């Protein structure tokens, strides 16, 4: 992997996608170091009051996941489960080495992991593992090494698909799980090649859900899984598995303290919900088109509400809209002023999105997730907004996401 640092945009959050979270891409560079993305983690807690909202979104309650807590397995039972899982899945996890050709000589450039997704030889990995490579070798658990070609890659989700002509005899496609069945606290397993050590299994738990992490572009990856299972350089592209041996995420990044590129107990995996959307398109077409709204924003807060003299304290506040973007074309408005509340400068005048297609929007991240996972370029969404103290619905036709947003920033 290259040494180039990929840092998320520090300007206000982009729709699809900026929300601060510390992260580090975790491939191994054969020429030293790993690809780092260091961002200050920040969270906020907002106490809200009951507010008047349109009838279309009143009484809508997001029910908690119906989770049945099972008795904790005995040590012997868990050990047996982990052994069986490893024996079944490890033959489908591969060690990926990439090369760059310079002056006719191939030099190793990066190393990572991947997993078999079908019997046609397709293998899922991270885009940052294979992006820019000239040659790719895939090593299976039985020692067989096969050359591979890139079928497709998506820098926005940091996913890629490569293909070998022939799979190793024991390599079977892994099963994909369901995001809605994942809960914080459940045991998970990572299998990969940390520091090039093939076939390594580590165990941990899901420590958080719904994280938004940096991509290889100006946008970000929503709904990512946080885990304390040990993930280190070289684990990139390998599977994060539940105890049924189903893939629930693709290991991609770790958080560091800046002094080391090794695991600090906080790792991130791209959720299987994104894998299921992106990978089939990469196999079929070589690329994936994300929907784009074209706004900058942040979470609505009580301070914003007081500054704008409105009662709604939850929603996605629009600080700016991109000229010529879908939101701008539909007439959405960004901030046009500031006010001081309790010594804090607060933007004023921007629209507040409180629902999308009738689904409540409590934060800017809610908006990001819906656009990313529930919509496509060319589709229309109905945004319920609060403007000048009044609610109204605005229909927006979404565009394909541009390759970069840097030139579009105000």
Give a summary of the structure in a few sentences.
The protein is mainly beta and 410 residues long. The protein has helices spanning 75-89, 127-130, 272-285, 302-308, 326-330, 364-374; strands at residues 13-14, 23-24, 28-29, 36-37, 93-102, 105-116, 122-125, 135-139, 145-154, 159-164, 175-176, 187-192, 200-214, 220-227, 239-241, 246-254, 267-271, 291-292, 295-299, 316-321, 337-341, 344-348, 352-356, 359-360, 380-387, 390-397, 399-400.
Fold and architecture overview:
With 410 residues, this protein is mainly beta. The protein has three domains: 13-42 and 85-89 and 175-285, Thrombin, subunit H, CATH 2.40.10.10; 91-164, Trypsin-like serine proteases (Thrombin, subunit H), CATH 2.40.10; 291-408, PDZ domain (Pdz3 Domain, Roll). Helices cover 14% and strands 37% of the residues. It is built from six helices and 27 strands. The strands form six sheets. Strands 1, 19, 20, 23, 24, 25 and 26 form a seven-stranded antiparallel sheet that branches. A six-stranded antiparallel β-barrel has the order 5-6-7-10-9-8. A six-stranded antiparallel barrel has the order 12-13-14-17-16-15. Strand 13 (200-214) and strand 14 (220-227) form a beta hairpin. The longest helix is centred in the first third of the chain and has 15 residues, at 75-89. Mean pLDDT is 83; it is low at 1-26 and 30-64.
Q: State the fourth-level CATH superfamily of the largest domain.
A: Trypsin-like serine proteases
Number of domains: 3
* SS content category: mainly beta
CATH fold call of the largest domain: Thrombin, subunit H
Strand content: 35-45%
Which CATH architecture of the largest domain? Beta Barrel
Number of strands: 27
Low-confidence stretches: 1-26, 30-64
Distance between the termini: 32 Å
Q: What is the mean pLDDT?
A: 83
- Total helices: the number is 6
CATH structural class of the largest domain: Mainly Beta
The backbone outline, from C-alpha atoms, is globular
The level of helicity is: 10-25%
Oligomer state of the chains in this structure: single chain
Cα radius of gyration in angstroms: 22 Å
Main sheet properties: 7 strands, antiparallel
């Amino acid at each position: 992997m290259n040494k180039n640092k990929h840092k998320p945009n520090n300007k206000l959050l982009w729709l699809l996608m900026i929300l601060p979270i510390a992260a580090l891409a975790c491939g191994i560079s054969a020429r030293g170091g790993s690809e780092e993305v260091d961002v200050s983690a920040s969270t906020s807690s907002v106490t809200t009051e009951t507010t008047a909202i349109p009838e279309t979104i009143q009484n809508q309650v997001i029910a908690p996941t119906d989770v049945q807590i099972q008795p904790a397995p005995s040590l012997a039972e868990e050990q047996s489960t982990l052994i069986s899982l490893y024996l079944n899945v490890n033959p489908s996890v591969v060690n990926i080495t990439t090369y760059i050709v310079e002056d006719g000589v191939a030099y190793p450039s990066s190393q990572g992991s991947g997993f078999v997704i079908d019997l046609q030889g397709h293998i899922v990995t991270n885009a940052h593992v294979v992006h820019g490579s000239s040659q790719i070798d895939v090593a299976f658990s039985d020692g067989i090494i096969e050359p591979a070609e890139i079928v497709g890659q998506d820098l926005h989700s940091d996913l890629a698909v490569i293909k070998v002509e022939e799979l190793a005899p024991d390599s079977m496609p892994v099963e994909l799980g369901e995001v809605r069945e994942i809960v914080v606290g459940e045991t998970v397993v990572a299998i990969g090649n940390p520091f090039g050590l093939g076939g390594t299994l580590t165990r941990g738990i899901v420590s958080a859900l719904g994280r938004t992490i940096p991509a290889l572009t100006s946008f970000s990856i929503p709904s990512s899984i946080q885990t304390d299972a040990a993930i280190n350089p070289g684990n990139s592209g390998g599977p994060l598995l539940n105890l049924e041996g189903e893939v629930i995420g693709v290991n991609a990044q770790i958080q560091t303290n800046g002094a080391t590129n090794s695991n600090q107990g906080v790792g991130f995996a791209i959720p299987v919900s994104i894998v299921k959307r992106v990978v089939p398109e990469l196999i079929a077409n070589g690329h994936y088109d994300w929907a784009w709204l074209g706004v900058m924003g942040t979470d609505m807060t009580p301070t914003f509400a007081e500054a704008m003299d409105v009662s709604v304290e939850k929603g996605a506040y629009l600080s700016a809209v991109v000229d010529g973007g879908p939101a701008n074309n539909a007439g959405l408005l960004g901030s046009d002023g500031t006010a001081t509340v309790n010594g804090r400068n607060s933007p004023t005048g921007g629209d507040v999105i409180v629902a999308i297609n009738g689904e409540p929007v409590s934060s800017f991240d809610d908006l990001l997730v819906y656009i990313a996972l529930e919509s496509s370029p060319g589709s229309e969404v109905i945004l319920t907004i609060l403007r000048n103290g009044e609610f109204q619905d605005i229909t927006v036709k979404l565009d394909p996401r541009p390759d970069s947003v840097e030139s579009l920033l105000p």
